[in-house]
C-alpha cells in the first residue's frame, strides 16, 4: 500500500500536466479575433501593393486605382486611422498607366511611393518616385530609366534623407532584364545607379557579375 500511493500520485501529476498542455495547444490553435475590416475603392479596379503603420498608430497603403485619377491606372495612396476609417486618399499619374509597388513613411512624416509609369519618363515604362507631405499632397516626383522598360519594386529612405530604389532594367541590361539600384538625394535627384549585369548558373548556384555604374 505504501508503494501504491506514490505511484498513483505520480500518474495523477503526469495526467494533469498532459491535460494542461493539450488545453494550451487547443487554445493557441484558435483563430485570432477579427477586430475590424474595411474595403476601399470605387466602381473600377483597385489593388493595394504596400502597407505601412504610421507614426500616429494608423496605417497608409499604396497601389493603383482605376476608379479615380487621370489615366487608366494611377498611383493611389490611402491614409486610415487606427480603426480603419479613411482619413484621406490621393491619386498621382498621367494619361497612361502608373502602379505604386512600394511605400515608406518619411522622416518628415510624409510619404515616398515608388513604382512604374508610362505617362512620363524616357520611354517604355520607368521607375517613378513620388514624394508627398503628411497630407498626401505631392511635393515632387522623379522618373529614372532609359528607352525601354524599368520596374521599381522597393524603396527605402536612407540615413542622409535620400532614397534607394531597387527593381529591374531592360534599358541598361546585358540580358532581357537585370537588377537596377538607383540612389537619390533628398530631392530625388539621382546620385548614382548600378546594374547587376547578367547572371549565370554554376552547379545550381546563381552568380551575378560585377555591378557597373550607368550614366544617365
Write the layout of secondary structure elements.
Layout lengths: L3 H25 L17 E8 L5 E7 L8 E7 L5 E7 L5 E8 L5 E7 L8 E7 L5 E7 L5 E8 L5 E7 L8 E7 L5 E7 L2 E4 L2 E4 L3 E2 L3
Antiparallel strand pairs: 1-2, 2-3, 3-4, 5-6, 6-7, 7-8, 9-10, 10-11, 11-12, 12-15, 13-14
User: Rg from C-alpha positions?
Assistant: 26 Å
The strand line-up of the biggest sheet is 9-10-11-12-15
Question: Which CATH-level-2 architecture?
Answer: 6 Propeller
| Percent of sequence in beta strands | 35-45%
- Structural class designation: mainly beta
End-to-end distance: 92 Å
CATH topology: Neuraminidase
The overall pLDDT, averaged over residues, is 86
- Structurally, the number of domains stands at 1
Name the poorly predicted regions.
1-5, 199-207
CATH class category name:
Mainly Beta
Kindly state the number of beta strands.
15
Could you give a short account of the major beta sheet? 5 strands, antiparallel
From N to C, what is the helix and strand string? HEEEEEEEEEEEEEEE
What general form does the structure show? globular
Helix content: 10-25%
Contiguous helical run count: 1
Structure in words:
The protein has one helix and 15 strands. With 216 residues, it is mainly beta. The protein has a single domain, classed as 6 Propeller (Neuraminidase), CATH 2.120.10.10. A five-stranded antiparallel β-sheet has the order 9-10-11-12-15, with no helix packed on it. Strands 1-2-3-4 form a four-stranded antiparallel β-sheet, with no helix packed on it. A four-stranded antiparallel β-sheet has the order 5-6-7-8, with no helix packed on it. The N terminus is likely disordered.
